[in-house]
């Protein structure tokens, strides 16, 4: 009769609101000086030690987020897959949650 019915409880946000949230999150990271932007990040090889040396040069490396504008470079993906504190995303997966959960977005 009046039993439970499966339904989605998701709330859909407008694009304007999502963009505004992303702007605010990026502005907050910029104010904290925890945002680094590179035009072209070249990885010399697929070895993890190269990425580890590069990340250790930064101040705070508890969690690092790498966002690639196009397709993720195969060398970068292989070099970071064993590092639990490094998250590599394509630009399509970039959202407010990933910015706020990572300590240093690149």
Automatic annotation (TrEMBL):
Transmembrane segments: none
UniProt GO BP: translation
Superkingdom, natural source: Eukaryota
Entries under InterPro entries matching the protein: Ribosomal_uL4, Ribosomal_uL4-like, Ribosomal_uL4_dom_sf
GO molecular function: structural constituent of ribosome
PANTHER family according to UniProt: 50S RIBOSOMAL PROTEIN L4 (PTHR10746), LARGE RIBOSOMAL SUBUNIT PROTEIN UL4M (PTHR10746:SF6)
The family this protein is said to belong to: Belongs to the universal ribosomal protein uL4 family.
Name under which the protein is recorded: Large ribosomal subunit protein uL4m
């Amino acid at each position: 009769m009046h039993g439970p019915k499966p339904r989605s409880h998701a709330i859909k946000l407008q694009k304007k609101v999502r963009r505004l949230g992303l702007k605010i999150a990026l502005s907050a990271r910029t104010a904290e000086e925890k945002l680094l932007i590179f035009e072209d990040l070249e990885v010399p090889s697929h070895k993890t030690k190269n990425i580890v040396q590069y990340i250790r040069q930064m101040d705070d490396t508890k969690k690092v987020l790498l966002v690639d504008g196009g397709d993720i470079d195969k060398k970068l993906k292989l070099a970071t897959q064993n590092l639990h504190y490094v998250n590599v995303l394509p630009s399509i997966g970039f959202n407010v949650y990933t910015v706020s959960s990572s300590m240093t977005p690149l």
